[in-house]
Amino acid sequence: MDGQSSKETRGQEFIEQGELLGAARQLLESYHRSGLRWMIRPEGVGIDVASRVSVGSAMVTGPVPTSAASASPMPVVRSVASGPLTNSSAITPSVNVLSQEDSKENELARAKKTTAANDSLPSSSVVPAQDFSWKLPVLDLTERESRFEKMKKQVAACKKCPELVAYRTRTVFGDGCLNPKVCFFGEAPGADEDKQGVPFVGRAGQLLDKIIEASQLRRPEDVYILNSLRCRPPNNRTPAPEEVENCRPFFEMQLEVLQPKYIVCLGAVAVRAILQTNVSIGSLRGKFHNYRGAKVLVTYHPAYLLRNPDAKKLVWEDMQILMKDMGIKPPKK
What we know:
The protein is built from eleven helices and eleven strands. By secondary structure, it is α/β, with parallel strands linked by helices. The strands form three sheets. Strands 6-8-7-9-11-10 form a six-stranded mixed beta sheet. The longest helix has 32 residues, at 2-33. The radius of gyration is 37 Å and the shape is elongated.
């Protein structure tokens, strides 16, 4: 009987040892799959209280909890990569081990980072804020004239758009007062503008003159007029985006020199050039936008009004917004 009991005891011990070895092997295999390399500390027994374990990009710091099971002589393993010691029975092999407090902090940081990233990106329904100020100091009229003369020569010599260069008669720089109350910013020269070298002198220009006059402004005394392009596109087609970008240094520098308080964008091409958005005019009109501190009003191009006379009342609504902000009393009906 005693012999039988002794055999059963030894058998049970063998099973327990086998289970223990199996569990230890499974734990070490899990650590091995994590990509870390481990070695057994010779002194073997004990628990490092100030442990630090690095698993992938995750990090766990702080004391290692103890338990009754940890009192048994288990080997202490060291991560060659992370250096500090920890007891193998106190760590769950996972690549995303984070304390609850760290998880909340990281989640908040990620949310702030995502919000900041979203705020910095253009949206299909939101106009990106052009709220940086002018780079140049305010120039006197003599300096403005000097800079414009130099720019006119650069524009006339520009050959960045071969198709436009081959088609144009002359370049169209701009026209108006060099200390303007308002800059009217359009699309591109047409046939009449290409012949005369002056923007907005054809039928659309004549209608723009009437709009300016109805707004209690004078051309050229109170306004400066320029376009996204300085060359006429073939057959008056819509300017290509790369053509607008080629002309961007010119019109941006013109506005930089003039530093107007108000800019009126005439049509979708002008809106894309100044506000750099594809949002529709219908969604943008009726309020001011911002470009380097200038107040930008969006409305329809006079050429559009020639094709759609009913839209004239919408443009008049926009001009009334401009007059009100400028302190100009609208004319009596």
